[in-house]
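Slides due. Your pick:
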Amino acid sequence: MTDPTSTTAVDGARLAERRWTPDGEVRAVLQVVHGLSEHAGRYGRLAAALTARGIAVGALDQRGHGRTAESTGPGRFGDGAGSDAVLDDVRDLGERLAADHPGVPRFLLGHSLGSAVALASAARDGAGLAGLVLSGPLGTAPGLAAAVPDLEAAVAAGSGEEAMAVLGAFNAPFEPARTPYDWLSRDPAEVDAYLADPLCGDDVPPTYGYGAGMFALVARSASPGSLDRLPAGLPVLVLCGSRDPVGGEEAEHVTALADLLRDRGLPVELHVYPDARHEVFNETNRDEVTADLVAWLEGRLSA
């Protein structure tokens, strides 16, 4: 891994960036978009497995997250920015990765909230993508779409800069629980690592302004109009746990999204891992999940 660096967005926000580069030939590039209340540094183990196969990895700390929050403010887009700036950031990093590794296939992976960002980004700017990976996705996310008007009303009433509680409700299916974040993984060590990370969880809650903008983006990302703009024939890999509360009971919302993508003629490979929870790359069967991702990427590279 290269040392963390930063880049300046067009609006002046300083975005923390990480790169993991193979020692030898670069065969492909994977761009990662992390989820809510986490950061790009948590994907180092996955990146190590991919660089061992010649796949370079790049990721930003999203606006309001990780080290980028030092510029934008925690849980905020930054002065005058909104969800479109998040998509611009994904596009701009993708262009830099393509320039740094010319002539090799480029893939985009989004986890959780990042999966909706990746889906919306692929619809808006995905012409050069060789494939899209959705990890722990929100699926069709009917609950979030329904919450957007209330969030927008809170912002209009002056609460845009106030912190909002988002993640706590996901633990309800696992009560009585050891921690408030048992819903992330069956592996206690992974849950404890998340809790101990000052750049994760309750230490970096989103504001109502951020939530209103991002949840509206989530709703748009799975809308018919947005899905219709995805590049024709774009291969899609979907990875989720059957007990991930984000994707609905038995991954019902994730399966619904996969069906919508297939309806548009996209080749979709869906893996629902029995009893796995939200962070499949940090689950007890993470080696299986990583192997499935590697096999899918290798299949695209040999096609």
In short: The CA atoms of residues 236 and 268 lie 5 Å apart. The beta strands are 5-8, 14-20, 28-33, 55-60, 106-111, 131-135, 236-241, 268-273. Residues 5-302 form a domain with the Rossmann fold fold (CATH 3.40.50.1820). The longest strand covers residues 14-20.
